[in-house]
Design the sequence.
DNA sequence: CGCCGCTATTCAGTGATACTATGTACCAGT
DNA sequence: ACTGGTACATAGTATCACTGAATAGCGGCG
């Protein structure tokens, strides 16, 4: 992966995963798959699981263990009220930053 | 500063400073001042200098020491060819990520 | 003169987080 | 039994922004 992308994902990956969860409950494996579909193909599985563990520790998600037809049981995460709030905060922060960067990008042309 | 902002600046702060330098040569102190004008008021001075040192090590900038009328001499940084290339790469990475996030943001509403 | 305030840079130590590189485990089809 | 897809977990590493200082030159004020 581009080195720049790696660093840029810090802080945004959390928001991305949170946004995916805001659509509906999901578990690590499908989240990873969805990221790959989105073109974020180089995000390691382990990274996603680490993010989910952090969400759980911060109390942003509810967790439910559900048996899978094929493979080990899934840990299904769903966003709770606190998580939704955190996501909104994320969007505010991101929007602010994106605006500044947009200005700089326009100005630099 | 918001905790989220701190992490989100990773990888983007580099681009922001690079973008400021692309307008014209500048030194740490004024770059910090310009960031504050932009509303990025909580970026520590020390952080900006660290970024500049990294740029120098990566060979993205040319450095010139110029005496100041008031205070110690300034280290004036100007973007070189490699730096300009790096900045373009940054914009590509940023645009890609911003698009994905925009999609997720729209989709989540 | 001595102190303050502005200009200007530097650095040691800390914390958060994404990566690499594995390892574990379950099931189906051949 | 073996392969391949599903699903989760983790130890160790590197990067980078922050905090909180220290250092230094200069002008003005009492």
Sequence:
């Amino acid at each position: 992966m581009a080195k720049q992308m790696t660093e840029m994902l810090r802080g945004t990956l959390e928001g991305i995963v949170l946004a995916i969860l805001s659509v509906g409950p999901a578990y690590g494996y499908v989240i990873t798959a969805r990221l790959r579909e989105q073109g974020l193909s180089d995000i390691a599985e382990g990274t996603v699981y680490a993010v989910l563990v952090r969400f759980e520790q911060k109390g942003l998600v509810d967790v439910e263990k559900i048996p899978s037809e094929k493979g080990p049981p899934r840990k299904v995460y769903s966003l709770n009220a606190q998580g939704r709030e955190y996501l909104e905060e994320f969007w505010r922060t991101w929007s602010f930053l994106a605006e500044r960067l947009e200005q700089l990008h326009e100005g630099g042309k």
Remarks:
- The interface with chain B takes residues 2, 4-12, 14-16, 19-20, 22-23, 38-40, 87, 89-91, 93-94, 96-98, 100-101, 103-105, 107-108 of chain A (CB under 8 Å).
